[in-house]
Amino acid sequence: MTTPLNTPLEIPALSDAEELSCDVLVIGGGTAGTMAALTAAEHGANVLLLEKAHVRHSGALAMGMDGVNNAVIPGRAEPDDYVAEITRANDGIVDQSTVRQTATRGFAMVQRLESYGVKFEKDEFGEYAVRQVHRSGSYVLPMPEGKDVKKVLYRQLRRREMRERIRIENRVMPVRVLTSQGRAVGAAGFNTRTGQFVSVRAGAVILATGPCGRLGLPASGYLYGTYENPTNAGDGYAMAYHAGAELTGIECFQINPLMKDYNGPACAYVANPFGGYQVNRHGERFVDSDYWSGQMMAEFAAEVASDRGPVYLKLSHLPEESISALESILHSTERPTPGNLSRGPGPRLPHA
Predict the structure, then answer these.
(1) Which of 79, 154, 177, 280 is deepest in the core (most CB within 10 A)?
(2) What is the pairing mode between strands 166-170 and 47-51?
(3) Distance between CA 218 and CA 205 in Å, rounded?
(4) Residue 30 gets which letter from DSSP?
């Protein structure tokens, strides 16, 4: 039944709330939530996965991903190398124990994703073709068909053995984690289409709602003018805070140099491995390292403020196959809208 647009929406009674229960409640159906649900189910738990949109095409990687940026491949690097480089890139403002977990467990995750059907770039010897972006070490592992990563994971969720363990509730927006004696025991939310309240009783709760992509909005205040996925609105932060968790580090958010009228990644992780780099209006390369870091941001800001600005991403020296590969990544997997714009008059990919 469809409610006419001019009909006031009545708030359903709390007594009519839908009540659910599970062993493990996963809040957020993006890539992290999907993997958490699969992992819990593989260990025998009955899982409930709540997603405010639809799991098939939700989350920051709904359009896919061009590569894994933290692949520490045995024989090519050690976890200590990665921890040292990330610490240096972030001017020491990192939780090294968390970075070490990523470095130590990342390779097994690459292998697991590959077993699901996610494809990673290999060299002529069949080895993972990691690329260098950081000042030291090669940790970027391209995904040639990364636009399909969420589809691959959704197929895993719908396997018969997983369907028996994982219940998916789409269009349900959790707003509070319920606690008892200092433990998370469930969640309260509502159906985003009907307004019906939903309460969940759970043995454990996993928050997989992503970061707060709207921290650090551009000067215009445009809510979707963010590098991060704008639907990652910080609801997980709010739920954790109201449940009694301590929040730390959220004043450190990512700010990227973006090309004018082109809100998408183009430097460092994407263009740099192909040979692209930043130049000032004289065509001079002005940064010590193209990897995003506090140092790069300072150098970038200084150049823009000087009489040597504006700055550009230089690609004109690259061969046609490199430009085509960049366009394939930037205009399909990452941001399809700029690709549509670039098919109009003017250069295909904005560059110097």
Answers:
(1) 177
(2) parallel
(3) 34
(4) S
